[in-house]
């Protein structure tokens, strides 16, 4: 079998018209019809064939042969275990490349949108109890750099904690014991940490006009604890970070990823779906304990007024807008 192409002498860029003669296991190279090199098939070296790029056939003495068309040496490629002509055609097919790109993007999107949340939901429930407790403690330590010591009187703090103990007795079993912490800040807010800790900020406690209004907020945060929302989000954020770090080669400890993600989530909030789920948990609890969810609607009214004072638009908030939440609380 004779294949036409071009040849390059050892360590020279000079080009000459050449042929190779393939006879069984023996390969002979002819440059301008003169035999310049020969070798056995085992000693022959072929470059990788990518798309339509020419394959370089290297001889042990340094001669290099480049065929006019890769298909002419397809038999050599197959013997060397390289890509066949059919595979090279697939690699150079623009439509197949485009379809492959779209498929990969779709798989990445599906994994991020559905796969990671699904896995995070179950992984958060499989973690040993000491992991959420440890992560929650570390997140609170970091958040304490932003907060001040609470100014709520100790007697009032004790009364709130005692009331929460009574609430827990009338609710479904919590995955973690609920612990109430008080901190001071400029914002009326409350949030639940992994491990069952709920932090109440002084402006929120002072804003509530009744115990039932404050209990509505606490029950909302207990809904996050019950559904393990915080841990689910942390696993999801950490898993995403670990995947990205693995792809980029910049890896670090998963626990540190969780703590860093926890501080970020506490500052940006949970998803709106999680907030709605916690609202429904609180509403059902209010109806069971107080036979009305109106105190929660009233508390949302007070928080909406605070939000307007702070000039924060709804689209910047991770929570559903207050009109939706108030209407939900007042629906039968």
From TrEMBL:
<keyword id="KW-0479">Metal-binding</keyword>
<protein>
    <submittedName>
        <fullName>TPR repeat-containing protein YfgC</fullName>
    </submittedName>
</protein>
<keyword id="KW-0645">Protease</keyword>
<dbReference type="GO" id="GO:0051603">
    <property type="term" value="P:proteolysis involved in protein catabolic process"/>
</dbReference>
<dbReference type="GO" id="GO:0046872">
    <property type="term" value="F:metal ion binding"/>
</dbReference>
<keyword id="KW-0378">Hydrolase</keyword>
<dbReference type="Pfam" id="PF01435">
    <property type="entry name" value="Peptidase_M48"/>
</dbReference>
<dbReference type="GO" id="GO:0016020">
    <property type="term" value="C:membrane"/>
</dbReference>
<keyword id="KW-0482">Metalloprotease</keyword>
<feature type="domain" description="Peptidase M48">
    <location>
        <begin position="174"/>
        <end position="331"/>
    </location>
</feature>
<feature type="domain" description="DUF7092">
    <location>
        <begin position="3"/>
        <end position="79"/>
    </location>
</feature>
<dbReference type="InterPro" id="IPR051156">
    <property type="entry name" value="Mito/Outer_Membr_Metalloprot"/>
</dbReference>
<keyword id="KW-0472">Membrane</keyword>
<dbReference type="InterPro" id="IPR055518">
    <property type="entry name" value="DUF7092"/>
</dbReference>
<feature type="transmembrane region" description="Helical">
    <location>
        <begin position="92"/>
        <end position="112"/>
    </location>
</feature>
<keyword id="KW-0862">Zinc</keyword>
<keyword id="KW-0812">Transmembrane</keyword>
<dbReference type="GO" id="GO:0004222">
    <property type="term" value="F:metalloendopeptidase activity"/>
</dbReference>
<comment type="similarity">
    <text>Belongs to the peptidase M48 family.</text>
</comment>
<dbReference type="Pfam" id="PF23368">
    <property type="entry name" value="DUF7092"/>
</dbReference>
<keyword id="KW-1133">Transmembrane helix</keyword>
<dbReference type="InterPro" id="IPR001915">
    <property type="entry name" value="Peptidase_M48"/>
</dbReference>
